[in-house]
């Protein structure tokens, strides 16, 4: 019985070789988009966890050029700086703070020069233009509002800024890119399902006499349908495996080979993530092909 089913399936694959190749390619491309979208989402979540946990709250002290209402007296005095530090060490804020450090204007200027090395702007910036600041690491970055509310109105404080707000725009853009990939993948999966259904219908039409004989001798519906469904499943399986290989290729050559050396302090997706995605792609491809094939052959044969 199984020998007959596989023999019929192989004949169908040979007769419709061009359509089978089309199914493989469409399945490969659509599932590669699906895998890429999943991989991008994993990368976004990984980066969020990594950077949000390291995001600091900057308490910028007034300079001589600050326009904030708290800076009416000009540059923050040593007494005002000591008052801010006392608040950070106090019983109200200290339970929420992991650690903090103070950066004076000379240190800020040195860091600025390193960060923008080679940029012409470094020639026009002087230490007195830069803010002295307390850099605060919160135990829970989501509780930064407590620090902002407590310190924003204190004399000598120009602003209190949670660095996570600068990350939100980046992650929002990445999410849009991920959703776009999912949308393209959904359209291509529909195209793959329609192509699988069309291939199976053509295969059934080309063997309509054989199918009529099988019905006359009492072959069951499942026996008649099985070779056609397997044709779609095998084609989609090959495309799924190629898509899984493409995801591993992206991780190996692009993420680990290109991005990792350039971004050594960033959490990037790994081979383990690709290993999670690969079976998902194979299952999606096989289920899609089986469902499309089942619908196509049942409608055509009316059995």
Describe the 3D structure.
With 303 residues, the protein is α+β, with helices and mostly antiparallel strands. The protein has helices at residues 2-15, 17-54, 78-89, 105-115, 144-151, 164-206, 208-216, 221-262, 271-301, and strands at residues 57-61, 97-103, 133-138, 157-162. The longest helix has 43 residues, at 164-206. The two termini are 19 Å apart. The model has no long low-confidence stretch (mean pLDDT 81).
Give the helix/strand layout.
Blueprint: H1 2-15, H2 17-54, E1 57-61, H3 78-89, E2 97-103, H4 105-115, E3 133-138, H5 144-151, E4 157-162, H6 164-206, H7 208-216, H8 221-262, H9 271-301
Antiparallel strand pairs: 1-3, 1-4, 2-3
Function: Part of the ABC transporter FtsEX involved in cellular division.
Domain FtsX extracellular: 56-160
Main location: membrane
Could you list some keywords that capture this structure?
alpha+beta; 303 residues; Cell division protein FtsX; single chain; 4-stranded antiparallel β-sheet; 9 helices
């Amino acid at each position: 019985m199984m020998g007959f089913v596989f023999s019929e399936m192989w004949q169908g694959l040979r007769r419709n070789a061009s359509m089978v190749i089309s199914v493989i390619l469409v399945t490969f491309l659509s599932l590669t988009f699906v895998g890429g979208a999943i991989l991008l989402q994993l990368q976004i979540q990984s980066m969020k966890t990594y950077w949000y946990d390291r995001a600091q709250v900057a308490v910028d002290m007034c300079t001589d050029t600050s326009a904030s209402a708290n800076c009416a007296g000009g540059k923050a005095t040593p007494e005002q700086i000591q008052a801010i530090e006392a608040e950070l060490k106090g019983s109200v804020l200290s339970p929420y703070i992991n650690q903090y450090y103070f950066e004076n204007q000379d240190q800020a200027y040195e860091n600025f020069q390193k960060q923008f090395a080679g940029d012409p702007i470094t020639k026009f910036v002087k230490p007195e233009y830069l803010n002295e600041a307390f850099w605060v690491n919160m135990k829970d970055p989501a509780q930064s509002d407590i620090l902002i509310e407590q310190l924003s109105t204190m004399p000598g404080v120009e602003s209190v800024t949670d660095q996570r707000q600068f990350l939100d725009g980046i992650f929002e853009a990445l999410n849009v890119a991920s959703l776009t990939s999912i949308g393209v993948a959904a359209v291509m999966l529909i195209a793959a399902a329609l192509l699988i259904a069309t291939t199976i219908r053509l295969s059934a039409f080309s063997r309509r006499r054989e199918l009529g004989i099988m019905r006359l001798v009492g072959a069951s519906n499942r026996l008649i349908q099985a070779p056609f469904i397997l044709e779609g499943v095998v084609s989609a399986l090959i495309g799924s495996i190629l898509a899984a290989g493409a995801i591993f290729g992206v991780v190996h050559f692009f993420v680990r080979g290109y991005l990792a050396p350039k971004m050594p302090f960033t959490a990037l997706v790994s081979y383990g993530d690709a290993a999670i995605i690969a079976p998902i792609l194979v299952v999606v491809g096989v289920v899609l092909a089986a469902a499309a094939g089942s619908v196509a052959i049942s409608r055509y044969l009316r059995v």
